[in-house]
Design a protein that fits this description.
The complex is a heterodimer of chains A (272) and B (246).
Chain A lengths: L10 E12 L2 E12 L3 E5 L6 H8 L7 E6 L2 E2 L5 H8 L2 E4 L11 H12 L4 H14 L15 H12 L6 E5 L7 H18 L2 E5 L3 H7 L2 E6 L2 E6 L1 H5 L4 H8 L12 H10 L1
Parallel strand pairs in A: 3-8, 3-9, 6-7, 7-8
Antiparallel strand pairs in A: 1-2, 1-4, 4-5, 9-10
Helix pairs in contact in A: 3-4, 3-5, 4-5
Chain B lengths: L1 H16 L10 H11 L4 H26 L4 H40 L2 H7 L4 H39 L4 H11 L2 H28 L3 H33 L1
Classes of the chains: A alpha/beta (272), B mainly alpha (246).
């Protein structure tokens, strides 16, 4: 029995020559990478290196100055809003803060993309909501408001909502920021499990190295808007690049320029 | 800025009529929720403001007309100023302060909390989902509140006329009816309709424009209220001039 081809392209996501400046500042310059179906790509980098900007380009919130982004073979940078919203139905996104709607209950939050994108009856939507909440281990929390649950639970509800329309591609923006180590492990296990069970691909933006090495199958390291290292977790660990090594090992001293280093500070003091 | 405002307004007004051409758009339940939040919840304050202004008009008028020996003119004054001007105006002022500001603050907070972006990513158009129900509720509820407010204002004028100025209750009502034409009522309601559209569009626009956290929400809300008030007064002058001079 041969399965019908589920995917148009061998790559779930492909970014070619992506460049974007805000005024004189070049935030992204010539970013290239590919992600095969079923893999988890980690985008790492320090604060302000362009990780979030890159993610916003991939989800179509921002348009690049140059370069192309292919989602399963479809080039998205030239699409208009309506075509883009069709592409967006095939991906889910977990926001840094969860971005749950505070006026809606947990169940309504998860049901929202289902009810707004199709004419399914509310009974079926309820059933899907139960299934999705079960996936993230939050059965029975449908009726609570986001303000009544913890940060880790909000992230899991965000995950359930991201999965509501059975996406092919899952984006996570710092999924473990602000969580305790146990909850971080829970979210990580969830991401790995879900990609395996549901056969989806994931792009995770993070600077949490423990979590990154735990879940990645591919990694890229962004520094000052450029991809300076890419590969499997083992390749990244053994990459001799001093910037990369400083970042993954978390050393305070190294080639990554600090905004206020000691001698500069002294010089500035003396000049003042 | 103006271009962005025109764009959002055009999208939102087009969104109102989208269901006529069979497109998926806003939901009736969302509209009703907004009509309650914007309209029904504003009713007590609108009624109070109109009541007090009716009293003030009657009392101020009585002082002047008494000098002319024409105290029963109070009925005329209250009737036409409430219907033509004071009713729509004070109702709009209350709705701007209460509901316009809350629309801007609510949408702004959603923008800051990435909720609007989340809608976009889910393929849900935030204009259809958030802006259209608020704008439409504003357009519907502003005339409704105005009519109810005007009734309260007329009543409080009548209270002053009969209780304090000792005018005959029936005579007061008769004079009021004779003093105004249907045109006055419709003129007031036309104003209310336009105020509703302006306030709805401006307050949603400023909400969707918010950048930069809690401070941004505060700044946008202030701008929204000021812009709503000035543009409402400008439309008031324009409609008055058009109706009475053309």
């Amino acid at each position: 029995m041969s399965e019908p081809p589920k995917h148009k392209s061998p790559y779930a996501l492909e970014v070619r020559g992506l460049t974007r400046s805000f005024g004189p500042r070049k935030i992204l310059s010539d970013v290239n990478f590919k992600l095969k179906h079923g893999e988890i790509l980690i985008i790492m980098g320090g604060s302000g290196c362009g990780k979030s900007t890159l993610l916003r380009h991939i989800i179509g919130s921002l348009k690049p100055d140059a370069g192309e982004i292919y989602i399963d073979g479809t080039e998205i940078t030239k699409l208009n809003d309506r075509e883009m919203s069709k592409v967006r139905k095939r991906f889910g996104m977990l926001f840094q803060t969860g971005a749950l709607f505070n006026s809606l209950t947990v169940g309504e939050n998860v049901a929202l993309p289902i009810l707004e994108s199709s004419d399914v009856s509310s009974n079926i939507a309820d059933l899907v909501v139960k299934l999705k909440l079960e996936l993230v281990g939050l059965t029975g929390f449908e009726h609570l408001k986001p303000a009544q649950i913890s940060g880790g639970m909000k992230k899991r509800v965000g995950m359930a909502r991201a999965l509501a329309l059975d996406p092919d591609l899952l984006f996570c923006d710092e999924p473990t920021a602000g969580l305790d180590p146990v909850m971080t492990a829970v979210i990580d296990t969830l991401t790995v499990d879900l990609t395996k069970k549901l056969g989806l691909s994931a792009v995770v933006v993070t600077h949490d190295m423990t979590s990154a090495f735990r879940i990645a199958t591919q990694m890229i390291f962004l520094f000052e808007g450029k991809v300076i290292a890419a590969g499997t977790p083992d390749e990244i660990k053994n990459n001799p690049d001093p910037i990369l090594q400083q970042f993954i090992n978390g050393y305070a001293d190294g080639p990554i320029p600090l905004k206020l280093s000691k001698d500069d500070y002294l010089k500035r003091l003396m000049q003042a | 800025m103006l271009l962005a405002f025109a764009q959002l307004s055009a999208q939102a007004f087009a969104g109102i009529f989208a269901p006529l051409s069979g497109q998926r758009s806003w939901k009736l339940s969302a509209l009703f929720a907004q009509m309650v939040a914007i309209g029904v919840a504003s009713l007590p304050t609108v009624a109070l403001a109109n009541f007090l202004l009716g009293l003030v008009l009657a009392i101020q008028g009585a002082g002047q007309f008494d000098k002319l020996g024409a105290i029963d003119m109070v009925a005329d004054l209250v009737a036409f100023s409430i219907l033509r001007e004071i009713g729509p105006l004070i109702t709009a002022v209350i709705v701007i302060g209460r509901s316009g500001s809350s629309i801007t603050a609510e949408l702004g907070t959603m923008k800051v909390a990435e909720e609007i972006e989340a809608l976009n990513v889910m393929g849900i158009d935030p204009v259809k989902y958030l802006v259209v129900p608020r704008l439409l509720a504003m357009i519907i509820m502003m005339p409704v509140l105005t009519v109810l407010g005007e009734a309260v204002g007329l009543f409080s004028g009548w209270l002053v006329g009969t209780m304090s100025l000792h005018l005959d209750p029936i005579y007061y009502v008769q004079r009021s009816i004779d003093a105004v034409e249907q045109k006055d009522l419709f003129n007031g309601l036309l104003k209310a309709l336009i105020f509703g559209a302006v306030v709805g569009a401006v307050s949603c626009f400023y909400g969707m424009q918010v950048e930069g956290g809690a401070e941004g929400v505060g700044r946008s809300t202030t701008k929204s209220v000021v812009t709503c008030l000035t543009s409402m007064l400008a439309m008031d002058a324009l409609v008055t001039a058009l109706v009475y001079f053309v």
